[in-house]
């Protein structure tokens, strides 16, 4: 029974806060499918743009008058900002609505790409490129979030197959696209090529994805300390890994500062995330064995996928003088069939009697086989000698990647989707950078070793007339490149086989998603 005093007290209390608006739940249909394809298109263009500018970097530097050192910072800043954006994009998409955030990031990515070739000097170009990396890096987590949230259980794996295209299809198109624009059109189109695709993606996303309400109440619990620790931590670590090979790693005070300071900030960031009520990363998810396994294995798989692109491209360029235009057909042998191979692998994994763990084991074994074949190369190899390896990878790559996505996302609650996206995409971006640094360091070590051994043997060879062998230096260089490439292939094959050894004891069996009866 209420009393006058109780009524008076109740009247003075503030009204209860409104419940946060729930995200819009839309039925999957043509419109939502168009929106999903728009996000996929934007993510693929973002990845292709990054790889095109890497491959065409020499032409870009020459046209804009930048030095080799300047060019290295162009790549490093873009990569650092891109990886950092992956960590925080899921939180922003939930807070500001997925559709609104996606449209803004695609538009910013497009506008900054248009402005990059018009930059008047190096500082302006670096700022534009860094901001473009920030916008481009925010897109891949959105693709995973859309696939996990909107796709019905029966076709969810096909959505994840679309996401897998960013690891198997997109990177291989960098060289062919660079060859197209640089050789036939103009270096500026390495940047401007994204404009029509981004415009189409904006229209598809704006029409296809439902509009969630803003959830600005999340700003009251904004993880400011996490952002202040995590963003510089990731930027410093990525910059250190990208610039490490050029500056001789720990012989450089700058690299020591970047890697040491970044590691310290990262530890503080993770400590803060553990206890924050609204974190960017939910560390408690790592108790999920399948997610932890997927994150660990992801680094090794990306190392293998990066190597099988870089090793043949580098070998052909250094030994036979191939330009990107001549290397492009080799990479297209893997890239184009992915459009068919990934849906077929998704169909296989969608069968309840098929164990995703053993599909991945077979994929890794096939990658190991392809790399073992590559380890037999000699200085006589040309582009055609790599074709059989490329054919093996057509199904090996999706069979190694798609089960990881299935294991990482299966069994998670819907509310954990953005956190899983943040984990997977940030580890994916960071692992790709780490793999590049490791591969370059291994290349340097083995090149020095083989060069020293071959020079010693030549110096001890009786009766060698250096003057009678004017091409000896070129032949020696070609032999060093071939031996180093063979060593790298063996290293990559061992990594692929080592990943298979994790499968029997770490991940657990997971079944394809199905609608609840």
Element layout with pairings:
Elements: H1 4-12, H2 30-55, H3 57-64, H4 68-96, H5 98-115, H6 122-137, H7 139-150, H8 156-168, H9 174-185, H10 189-192, H11 194-208, H12 224-243, H13 253-275, H14 289-320, H15 324-335, H16 338-349, H17 356-374, H18 387-409, H19 417-460, H20 472-502
Helix pairs in contact: 2-7, 2-8, 2-9, 2-11, 4-5, 4-6, 4-7, 4-12, 4-19, 5-6, 5-11, 7-8, 7-19, 8-16, 8-18, 9-15, 12-13, 12-19, 14-18, 14-19, 14-20, 15-18, 16-18, 17-18, 17-20, 19-20
What would your notes on this structure say?
The chain has 517 residues and is mainly alpha-helical. Helices cover 73% and strands 0% of the residues. It has 20 helices and no strands. α4 (68-96) packs antiparallel against α12 and α7 packs across α19. The longest helix has 44 residues, at 417-460.
Short description:
By secondary structure, this protein is mainly α. It has helices at 4-12, 30-55, 57-64, 68-96, 98-115, 122-137, 139-150, 156-168, 174-185, 189-192, 194-208, 224-243, 253-275, 289-320, 324-335, 338-349, 356-374, 387-409, 417-460, 472-502.
The topology string of helices and strands comes to HHHHHHHHHHHHHHHHHHHH
Q: What is the quaternary state of this protein?
A: single chain
Q: Could you say which structural class the secondary elements and strand pairing correspond to?
A: mainly alpha
Low-confidence stretches: 4-19
- Based on DSSP secondary structure assignment, what is the total number of beta strands? 0
The number of distinct helices, counting runs of at least 4 residues, comes to 20
CA distance, first residue to last residue: 46 Å
Shape estimate: globular
Strand content: under 5%
Mean pLDDT: 86
What does the main sheet amount to? none
Give me the Rg, rounded.
25 Å
User: Which bin fits the share of residues in helices?
Assistant: over 70%
